[in-house]
């Protein structure tokens, strides 16, 4: 029996309504996700961007004999509550390195205390009314100002809020990532090559494969426990060091790299392998000369994304002692160091108001590094993907 | 070695009633001798007791309906089946008096002497020049750059591709047309100067004009090489092949001089297939 157009469109109307409803629901979900993202970034930017500026006071510094013992004596007494306590050590150190400066004086921009900084930025602070008046006066004459925060990017952690910076964490992250990359990349890639190109498909290799996939899903803190038990307690790798942290994170990154590499190898068409075998390549020549070059972009992107994931990791590093107060930039792989997420975690626990913006500022630095790493991975993929 | 009519007295060759004839007038040198070859994919037997002599500097076509084992048999000749884990092979494939499946035979050495051209053109994702030069360099056939250039030119000339690509040797091999790519693959195969070239339906992905070019090429190449080709196209077998083997369900039903086979097939099944009644 045939249906008229009217009957069919009656039924179609219901179907169209249904698909329209679904479309709206999914668009709503997308919009909600986008909204959260925007809110998150707006919050982080509004909180974190001020951290890149810092209050400085322009004042006369008198490099006297007394000042070389206590830096505070180089300043007018009424200014002292406003100037950062760091001068106690900074001025004598400067004079010890340049003894010829003793007896001179100069006009200089000195770091103000975090209270002044927070007052200028309109945040909660503990300044008295007189101090506020004093600052307002100097702001009017341009002697107190917010300037680019060199300290934040140029020094390590400090208990003095205005003196705390992210540099030691950045260097620690770089060193840790170098260790992670050097360990997990070659081992991961070779494992994947063996499993994908050489290993027979039997119960044993299937077991290994299942276990590798499971490893990728293990809570990262367990890798920290493993790192503590094996690397630190058994092999005696120094605690808190980039070496210990990097090795621990390498364990975590390994399954990610193995899985990414296997996927990349699998995406190389078999016809290329057959062609190579057909002209008399050995298995290793097939892999090295034909399969790996084609799989490389995929391997690189997978590894970079695995690395970025490791870079944002805090939990396993808590266990191996990398969440600690590290004021100095570590000079070797065995010295105590901290990493960016750990530094953020440490700052977030500080009670002082000034550390709130440091926390957000640290997150901004970490985020921009992660975003640029991921962007680099995308560019790499686009550049090398199917060159021919 | 002059081959006489089918010799069945070797220990590998049981006295079975295989359909096995050949043109008595032609007297060619033996290239590959196959005796009682059986092959299983897991539990299912794909080749059943094959006996065949392949002759040097001839084109032998393997025809038969889909799934009859002709491609599988072809891959036995350069041990490409080794790449499939579930394959199990019994029987003799002999080249130059040596069993190619023997433990001491290196499959890399075998594939150096038995080249292969695949159904779908599969040039390496490298330059045209590199496609040819890679294998000879790998096998240490050339040491100096000049020798290498010469070899690339010769291989491309033999494959009838030189005039079309001589000005763009550094361009990717995949930038060529399908027919040119297939000739590039042939050039790649002959660059290592093999004895035998296996072709697995080399023209099935190509247009009629490219197909004709490849067929002419096969005719020329048989002066230097032994060619074994699988084809679905009976006209093609009739045009290019000196000998034709008809496969059916893993067995060789008939093997004979192509002209004889296509004019007076000995078996009913062959006749049915050739006349297009099935397949």
Automatic annotation (TrEMBL), chain A:
Domain ABC transmembrane type-1 residue range list: 170-375
Topological relation to the membrane, as annotated: Multi-pass membrane protein
A GO molecular-function descriptor: phosphate transmembrane transporter activity
Cell compartments where the protein resides: Cell inner membrane; Cell membrane
Residue stretches spanning the membrane: 21-42, 166-195, 215-237, 243-265, 317-340, 360-380
UniProt similarity note: Belongs to the binding-protein-dependent transport system permease family. CysTW subfamily.
Name of this chain's protein: Phosphate transport system permease protein PstA
Source organism: Vreelandella aquamarina
UniProtKB/TrEMBL annotation, chain B:
UniProt entry tagged with the keyword Flavoprotein: no
Record GO cellular component, one term: membrane
Region annotated Disordered, chain positions: 1-21
Entry annotated with the keyword Nucleotide-binding: yes
Domain ABC transporter: 32-274
GO molecular function, one term: ATP binding
Top-rank lineage group of the source organism: Bacteria
Cross-referenced PROSITE patterns: ABC_TRANSPORTER_1 (PS00211), ABC_TRANSPORTER_2 (PS50893)
Amino acid composition bias (Polar residues), ranges on this chain: 1-12
UniProt-listed GO biological process terms: phosphate ion transmembrane transport
Keywords, in A-Z order: ATP-binding, Nucleotide-binding, Phosphate transport, Transport
SMART domains hit by this protein: AAA
PANTHER family, alphabetized: ABC TRANSPORTER I FAMILY MEMBER 17
Protein name: Phosphate ABC transporter ATP-binding protein
Gene giving rise to this polypeptide: pstB_1
